[in-house]
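Sequence only, no structure available. Ideas?
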Amino acid sequence: MGSSDTRPNILFVIADDQSWPHAGAYGCTWVSTPGFDRVAAEGVLFEQAFCSAPQCSPARAAALTGRPFWQLAEASLLAGLFPKELAVYPDLLEAHGYAVGHTGKGWGPGNWKAGGRTRNPAGPEFNEHRDHPPSEAQAGTDYTRNFLAFLETRGPGQPFCFWFGAREPHRPYEEGSGRRQGGDAGEVVVPGYLPDDPRVRSDLLDYAAEIAWYDRHLGAILDELDERGELDRTLVVCTADNGMPFPRAKCNLYPDSCQVPMALRWGERSWGGHAVTDFVTFEDLLPTFLEAAGIEVPDHVVGRSLLPLVDAQRSGRIDPARDHVLTGRERHVHCRPDNRGYPSRAIRTDDHLYVINYAPDRWPVGGPDSYYADTDGGPTKFLMVGRRFEPGIDRLFDLAFAKRPAAELYDLRADQECLDNRIDDPSLSEVRARLHARLTTRLRELDDPRELGSGDAFDAYPYFQGPWVWHDRIPGFKQIGAYNHL
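Reply:
I predicted one. C-alpha cells follow.
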C-alpha cells in the first residue's frame, strides 16, 4: 500500500441511544452538537434516517452487514451472538488493504466469541486511553486519544476504516448532571408521550449533557483530521443506533424509537449543506462504504448506496422509490416467560406509521413482574410507574407500558408523536389495507421468518446477559447463553 492510494478513509460515528430530533442541525436548541452540525453543514443531512431495529445489537448488526435485522439469525436480537458467517464491512475493507479499528462500543451487547469470531465485528479494539468526563456515570473512554493511537498503527498512505462508537447517551446518568453543566430546564422540549414534570425535564437535560460530551470528541477528531489534511479525503457518517432511553422511545417502533440523526460528509463530493428527505436505513451503510472504496457489493446485501443521494447535490426527495422504510423488533432483555420477545414490524411513510404486533397478549416492554424491563431505568420511568394512577399520567403510562392491540396506525400529518392509534378509524381503512399489504409483501420478499411461519426461531436464540434481579419471578426457560428449544 503506497502513498498513491487515493481511496477515501471511512469514519463511522455512532452514538448510543440518541433520537433524531436532538441535534442542532435539526433545529434543536437545548442539545449542543457542534461536531454533528459541522458534518451536516459541510455535507448532507438526512431528515428521515432509520435504524433497522430500535435496539443496540441488531441495529449495529444491520449497519455492519447491509441487511435487515431479521435476516441475521442470532445477531437479530439484543445480547445474542454474531455468527462468523455474516460478512461485515470492516472485514471486507481490511481484505482490500484498509487499516481497521474501533473505539468505545462496537457491536454489542452480545457475545461475538460464541459466534466463532476472533474480534468484535467492528474491528480491533482501541480503548486503552481513559478520559475524565464531567459525570461520574459516564464510561470515561478517551475516544479522541484512542483514535489517534489507531492512526499510528496504519502504514504510510494507507486508507483507514474506523468505528467511533460513543457510549453516550446510554443510561445510567448522574442525576442533575445536565443542570450542573449549565443546562436550562426551561428550554427543554418535552415530547407529548412524557409528563411535563421538573424531574422529567432534569432527566432530559442529563441526556443532553451526555450527547454534548460525545459530540466534543467528534469535534476534536474532525479537527485532528483537518489539521492532518485528511478530512476531505475521509467519508464521515454520523448517526445513532436507536432512540433515546425513555418510555415509549427506545425499544419501540415509534418515531423517537427508530428515527435517528444522520449526516454524511465527504469533501467536495458532498459540499453544500443539503437536507435530503429520502428514507434511508442502516442497511444502506455497507454498500455506501464499499462503493466509495471501489469494492463490489455482495449480492446478499439489501441496502442501497447513499452516494447517489449525495451526488445529486440538492435537497428534498432525490429518489422517488425511497418513500418508505421497514423497521421491527424481537426480544430485548429477558423479561417475559420462556425468554420470549415482543415481535413487531412496521412500515413508515411520509404520512403514516403502521405497526403489526404479532403477540398482543404479551407485555410490550415487559410486565410488572420485571418492572417493565425493556424500558431503561431512570427518573422518568420511576415517576411514570410510581404515579401511574394520577390523572394525565395514567394515559401516558398506558401508552408506554400497557398491552397493545394487534395493529396500530398513526396519521403523522396530525399526530407526529403517535399518541392516537387510528387503527379502527373507518376513514383510514383503505390506508390500513394498503400499508398492511405493502409491509407483509415486502417482509416476505426479504425472507422475514416472522412472515414466513418460522418466527419462533427468534425466541429460541441464546441470550448472553443477566441473570437479572427479576428472573426468579419469571417462569420458564432462563438459561444464559443456551438455545431455548421451544
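The longest strand covers residues 9-15.
Hope that gets you unstuck.
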